Task: structure prediction
Amino acid sequence: MDTQELQRIKNRYDIIGNDAALNLAIEMACVVAPSDLAVLITGENGSGKDIIPRIIRDGSRRRTAPFLAVNCGAIPVGTINAELFGHEKGSFTGAVATRKGYFEEADGGTLFLDEIGELPRETQAMLLRVLQDGEYMKVGSSKVEKANVRIIAATNINLLHAVETGKFREDLYYRLNAFQINMPSLRERKDDIYLLFRKFTSDFSESSRLCKISLTHEAISVLKNYRWPGNVRQLKNFTEALTVMESKPITPGADRIELDAPALLRHMPAEAEQVLPAVAGEAPGGSRMGDDDMRAIVKAILDLKQEVDRLKKIVESQHAVGAPAVAASAEDEAEWQESQPDEPAAPAVKSIRQSNAELYENTLAKYDGKVKLAAAELGVSERTIYRWLAKQNKQ
Result:
C-alpha cells in the first residue's frame, strides 16, 4: 500500500501516527477486508482496537449490511446467550416476549465481539457452532436458525494462555484466529506520543476556548518515557485534564502556553507497578511469527491485490466511468500536524501534512486543476482546497 492510500485511510478514520507497527495493522485490515475470514484483533486496552473492525467492514462486500459491536465483558453471564442468540417468550423470568439476538440483527453483515475472552464456556460452544455451521438456537427454542454473519473478535488477554488453563476452548480459538491483527501499545509507538498529545490539546482547546499546550524538548522526553498503561485513551484524558489545569482563556495574540519538564512532571501519573497483559498470540515458551515475516507476507498479498485491482479497472473502464473514490480527510490542515524545531521528524517518515499535500497535488493534476472534481474524489470541501492553494502561493 502506497503512502497516499495509507494516509487516506488514516484521514478517514481519524488515525494519528506514523509508527510502522500501526501502519502494518492498517494494511493487514485492508488486505483481509474483501474476504469473509474471521479476524482476531489483539492488543491492550485503550490501544484503538475498535478502529480495525470499521476498516474491515467498510472494505468488505458487507459494507452496506448491518454492523453491530458487542462488548462481551459488559453483558451479565446469565443473559449473554439470550443477548447474542435471542430468546423465546417465557424461556426465563422476564422474557415477556420473543426477542431477536445480535446474530439475527446482524444477519448478512458483520458482528464485532469485543473482549471475546470474557465469554463463558457454554456461550463459547454456541459461538463455535455458528462459526462452523452457521447455525444456532434461541434460548428456549428447539428450532435451528441460520446466521450469515462475519465475525470480528478482539481481546486484550493472551487467549492461548486461556486455552492452556481451560478458560477458553481451543477449537474456538483457532476458528476465531483465522487472521490475526495486533494493535501496538502506545509505549511501542514513542514517536507518535507527542503527535497525539498535540492533536488532543488542539481539539480540546478549540472546543473549550483555552490556549493550546506545547512542551519543551525536555518535557517531550518526559511524556515519551512514561509507560502509558492505559494507552491512547489514557493519553487523551491526561492531555485534556492538563489543558484545563495549566491553560487559560485565549486572548488576542496569545493562544498557546508552553510547559517545561518540571511543570509537566507535577501532573504526570505515578509510575505504579503494573501487571502487563501477556503478549497476545504467544504461548508461554512458544514462538510467534516475526514482524519481518509478517510484513513480507502482507507485501506479497498487497502486490497481488494491486495487480488484480489494476486489471479490474481496465475491464471496468471499457464499460463505464467509475465513481470517484471515497476518501475522508480533515476539513482543514491542522496546526498540530506541523513538525516542531525541537522534535525533527525522521527523514524516512513523511509527516501527515506532507502526505496530504501530495494527495492534493496529485488529485488536482489528475483533473487538470478542476477543484470541484478533486474535492469530490478527496472527500473534502472545495473551500478546503482553495485554502490549501492559497497557503501554497504564500510559500
About this structure: The beta strands are 39-42, 67-71, 110-114, 135-137, 144-146, 150-155, 179-182, 212-215, 256-259. The chain is about 45% helix and 10% strand. The two ends are 30 Å apart (CA to CA).
